[in-house]
Amino acid sequence: MLVSERLKRLLRLVPGKRRFGFYRFLPFFFVLGGAMEWFMINVRFGKETFCMMFTVGNNLKDSMRQRWRKGNFS
After folding, report:
1. What is the pLDDT of residue 19?
2. pTM of the entire structure?
3. What residues in the chain have per-residue pLDDT under 50?
4. How far, in Å, CA of 62 to CA of 59, rounded?
5. If we measure between CA atoms, which residue out of 53, 29, 50 comes closest to residue 40?
6. Per-domain residue ranges of the chain
7. Which pLDDT score is estimated for 59?
């Protein structure tokens, strides 16, 4: 059996095809997005989470922009 046939067979098992059509998969993506957000907030790599790294990077960019506007390049 080909992979595409297996995939089609698996997708047919999801209920709600007649009523919701393609949108029957939205709950899966909603849960996947929530899990990804939880992972980014709570799981640490070393001492930092993704959110900590992202906010530090944005703060650094903001401070560099402020220095550039003031003319202080050091």
Report:
1. 92
2. 0.57
3. none
4. 5
5. 50
6. 1-43, 46-74
7. 66
